Amino acid sequence: MTGPERRNGNELPIGRRVAQLRARRGMSQQVFADRIRRSKSWVDKVERGVRTLDRLSVIETVAGALGVAPGVLLAGTVRRAAGADTGGAVDEVRAALARYDFPGAGSDGQPPSVQDLDHQAGYAWTAYRNGHHPQVSRMLPDLLDGSRRACHPQSGNAPAADLLVRVYRLAAQVLVKLGEADLAWLAADRAMSAAAGDPRRAGLAAVSLAQALRALRRGRLAMTATRTAVHHLDLARSPDCPAGGPALAGTLLTEAALAAAACADAVAAGDLIGRTAHLAAAHDGRHHADLDGIGFSPITVELARALIAMHLGDHRQAVTIHREATGDDAWHLLPAEHRAAHLIDITRAHLDLGDPGAAGRALVAADAIAPAEIRLRPAARVALTAVLRAGSPAADVTRLAATIGLS
Prior knowledge:
globular, 21 helices
């Protein structure tokens, strides 16, 4: 097909893609309009190309109703930069997760050392915190295979169980970054199983499980998982609070609050983030140090509060909280991965306020902090596409788009 139906090769306009996906799911325009709380006329205009989908929040709403990721609607306008494709590494991680061989010796006849594997896992987590996702994804297959051979979650060996949870959690969080939410859920579920009922290990696994569930748009399930984990930690009645306990509880409550906001449950989100802020103030940021993705302090609470406001539709408040938080010295102490990820997430608020310039600056800043966050995450490429579609991007935004390979 040629002419206006196609823009570049086989690329369908976004409106036609919406129409195709809607039809495949057996929805009429009226049913679809009701699901996204729009009029049938609005849907018809979008599908005919009379009205443009240029707001990221609207694209996310439409994609959610169609059961696809936002990047699917923008397919054809987004492609990975040369050399940045992690598809091969993801396939190897998938293969490693699909293997069910029994614990025991490796191909050289010697069982891998739990201590050595734990050291490698620590190195991989450090790389993750620094935003080196390609490096981590290359390490994961061997880590998964080695940890499974060395450990048996029912053996009662605490270091072995700790290692399994640690490695499966890392796999889950990297896979969420790469847009592989289903595979991330599988890895997080394995972490929950490896926790073997231990409250601390289960709490750590629940953090990664909640992130995977949120990526799958299963916010209610994420809330249940995190609240249950906090309950089992039972810090209030525990005479011997485990090391990092308040930080873990605070991180779980933060995940629960973000999940509530994603479900548009403002009451639950407000209550949960309030409890989180109280816990952070009570411990005065002493648990700030990031341990395997568990970094908790007043600054992490404020960043979450900004994203909660954004999810609930108060974009002006979201940007206000974001600017105050990122102007604090504590912002620069956060891991590179956390800072870059937050900058990518907050672009939705900038775009919905009609400020693509601020959104573009946030993406450029994220690229300077942790380039892999921008260059590998589908969410970042969707956000950058929205900035470009808004028109007249700044020169550094245009350069970034060219580097990533956006058409």
